[in-house]
Design the sequence.
């Protein structure tokens, strides 16, 4: 089980680390790179070529402002690409969100919420789980655990106010 995460700048690292943690928690091998579509395009293309041939199953990309990174990556692979729009400009991530979701036909990028790297990791795991029944079961258990935590929180609220 392999995933890659590419961010456009080291300033994005804190927003990307939760995705790395979730993927590793589920046993995925994760390659993390900082390769700007604008400032490191040759290195980016070389890395995409590498993951196209090393068994990587999904690529998460995180970028802010013009957010060209997800589209540039998607244009060079048929692997699923998930875009994470990041806040950080005066438009607080809406610019990145609009850029990522507006891909031309035939070059899709799945897009999660602004700063939504956690959901990007879960979506990547769901994609990988299509061909991995053990991972699918782990994801189901994780959801059951989330449900139990929500039920417990509700019971605590009820107990506090009754």
Sequence:
């Amino acid at each position: 089980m392999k995933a890659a995460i590419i961010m456009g700048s080291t300033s994005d690292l804190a927003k990307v680390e939760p995705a790395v943690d979730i993927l590793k928690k589920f046993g995925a091998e994760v390659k993390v790179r900082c390769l700007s579509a604008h400032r490191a395009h040759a290195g980016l293309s070389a890395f995409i070529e590498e993951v196209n041939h090393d068994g990587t199953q999904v690529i998460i990309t995180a970028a802010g402002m013009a957010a060209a990174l997800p589209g540039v990556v998607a244009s060079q692979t048929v692997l699923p690409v998930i875009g994470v729009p990041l806040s950080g400009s005066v438009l607080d991530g809406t610019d990145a969100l609009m850029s990522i979701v507006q891909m031309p036909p035939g070059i899709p990028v799945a897009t999660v919420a602004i700063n939504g790297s956690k959901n990007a990791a879960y979506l990547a795991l769901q994609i990988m789980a299509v061909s991995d029944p053990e991972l699918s079961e782990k994801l189901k258990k994780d959801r059951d655990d989330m449900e139990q935590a929500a039920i417990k929180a509700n019971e605590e609220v009820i107990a506090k106010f009754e």
Observations:
- The longest strand covers residues 58-64.
- The radius of gyration is 17 Å.
- Residues 133-161 form the longest helix (29 residues).
- The beta strands are 2-7, 29-34, 58-64, 81-86, 110-111.
